[in-house]
Each structure stands twice: as C-alpha cells, then as structure tokens.
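Lab meeting, item 3. Inverse folding demo.
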C-alpha cells in the first residue's frame, strides 16, 4: 500500500491486531505478528507499507488478511486500488518488493 506515513500505519495496525496475536516483534523496519498458525510481516519503506501473510491454510490466511485490511480501514481511508496483494509462495520478501518497485513480470506464484 503506497503511503507517505508507512511507519505510523504499521504501528497502528500492530496496536489494533495485538489482541489476536501471540506476540508482536520488531526487527529493523519490519514488524512481525505471530498468530500461532500464521504470521504477518509488515515492512515500512519511505513510500509504502508492505504486508506478507503466511499461514497453515487458506482459511487462516484469509482471516489474517481480513484482519489487516480491516485495521487499515479503521485507521485511514484506503481506496480499493491502494491495496495490492501479490502471491508470494516461497519467494523472499525482498524479491517481492523489488518486483513491485521495478514493475517486472512476476515469475513466482502460490
């Protein structure tokens, strides 16, 4: 999601999601939300807030994704086109960000 206030949004999303998490950790600009059977990584950059959700199954994945999008909706107005979900599979987070920055064709998949 493109936003000039990514770090602030990440903090607010974590605060709103804390009741549903086992733990919330931080490493550099990444926030890691541990849900037990799933985890979400929020990475703030100068121009955007990137999300990555990994889960044991699709139902849990969808639930975490809905929680994150709902948290965003309560914090700020988010146009539908502003949130873009990309399939990642086992592709490293860095590669996803590079692909979005360069707008290259995506070789990965779910």
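The presenter then showed the designed sequence:
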């Amino acid at each position: 999601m493109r936003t000039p206030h990514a770090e602030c949004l990440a903090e607010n999303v974590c605060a709103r999601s804390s009741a549903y998490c086992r733990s919330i950790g931080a490493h550099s600009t990444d926030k890691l939300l541990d849900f037990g059977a799933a985890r979400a990584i929020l990475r703030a950059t100068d121009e955007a807030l990137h999300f990555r959700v990994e889960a044991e199954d699709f139902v849990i994945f969808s639930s975490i994704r809905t929680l994150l999008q709902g948290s965003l909706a309560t914090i700020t107005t988010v146009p539908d086109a502003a949130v873009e979900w990309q399939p990642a599979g086992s592709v490293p987070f860095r590669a996803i960000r590079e692909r979005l920055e360069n707008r290259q064709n995506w070789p990965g998949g779910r």
